[in-house]
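Hi everyone,

Forwarding the result from last night's run.
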Amino acid sequence: MKKILLIILSFTAIINALEITPKNVKNANTSLIVLNQKNIQNPKLTFDKHNINFFPYPSKKESYYALIPVSYYKDKKAYRVIVSYFQNNKKIFKGITLNVIDGKYKSETINVPKGKVSLSPKNKKRVEKEYKEAMKIYNTVTPELYLNGAFIKPMNSKITSSFGKKRVYNNTLKSYHSGTDFKAAVGTKVKAVNDGIVVISQNRFYAGNSIVIDHGQGIYSCYFHLSKMNFKVGDRVKKSEIIGLSGSTGRVTGPHLHFAFRINGVQVDPLQAITLLNKNHLY
């Protein structure tokens, strides 16, 4: 009986040491893994063959966190997340299940100039170059966390197009809506959602005038189609500072703010990510 009790207590301790929120996550959403363990080194996790580092939990002692961004195109099924770390010179493994479920995103049809859908060789080359440059940035994980309190929204405005909608351009399915669109006339002020460092400040074919902020530890916020950009690459920006003005540059049908989020290089629902980070005091 005593042996059985010890096994039960040991199993309970393992479960409590590893937490996942949410356990059932929609495609293109983010899950938080929390590792509560003393005196450990080099904690890491593997999710579907992708390695992700843990960081010290900002508001919890002797705890670590990792963010798992789930791709929009990830297969809907159960995945085993494997966590490893060293303790007393011994490598320890733990596992927990993450269920990826269907986000059930809607579809929308958009009519745009033909040149913005069927690209000329020159524009195709430009798009490929801009994508490669951006992905190199998004896949960079800065060790420092720059956050200053909870995230805010980039503006208080009506959402005109939610994240994840299938985008049908001129009757051809091309992509999904990779951000959240806020209603904004040309010249509306756009706020930084938290502290960070500007890593992109340029005009791009699809996104138009773009500002991207690195918030540290793999978290990036993106602000597209601006009419004016107030910061350049390398500038430090504080939460609620006016980083630019909304506009209609790039591939758009009218003025608005396209707000997007990248975590560990993966495009995710920005509002779900912000809610998750704020709710769990990851700052």
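The first helix runs from residue 2 to 17.

Cheers,
N.
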